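# step 3/5: fold
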Amino acid sequence: MNGTTFAPDTAFTDIPIVSLADWRQRPTHRQPFAEQVVEACHKVGFFTLVDHGIDEAFIASYFASLESFFALPTAAKALIDKRQSPHFRGWEQVGAELTDNRVDYREQLDLSTEHPPYAPDSMPPYLRLDGPNQWLPESVLPGFHSIVNEFLARMGALADELMEILAVGLGLEAHAFRTVFGERPLSFAKLISYPPTPAGQAGVNGHHDAGFLTILLQHGVGGLQALNPDGDWIDVPPTPGAFVINLGEMLQSMTGNYLVATTHR
């Protein structure tokens, strides 16, 4: 995202690790735990989440389904080309997107929460962007739709829990953030494959995420980096079975720039 950057106020050199077991198994410790998470989000804007309860067998099955999707012939994936969706949902080939006016070397499938569609004449017009995803026929990739939907449902539940932790850590009512999103909350998902990139290029260039928070599942290959206030790119190493959590500009704005959407690539 372009615009003013509000960097963390300390030059972090690594990414903190947060165990969700501390929140779930120690009810009397929830307030200080939540405050520590908020401190990490204020100073770094990133953390690695472990002990989240999503089993590794399911994660492995999910990754296997993604690998099967990206291994399909281009003609099969083009059946759900993003350019044919009025809701900007679907598949994009490598080089289809730019970040900071530079090509992104990634192939991806964009999805979102699916609600009943608005009427074609709904106002304001931006409501019409909310619509169905594109899915391949079951005969092309059996089971893909089901396992991806299950993964997204689990991510939604985890996001709700993280919103509660952040609210408690900020001294708010536990459901303060969840109520902001109303009766049709939207989550956006990117299923991404990064091919080898040319020297000096990036899979996706430096940016901020625009939403509330991001839950990222890495697939064992490093490359993700976060920018600290000194201008150093800090590695966010993949941890088996863990999720990387980073904040978006929406949450930064809602907290008056106290919690930070850290630049990353």
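# step 4/5: annotate
The longest strand covers residues 107-112.
# step 5/5: archive (pending)
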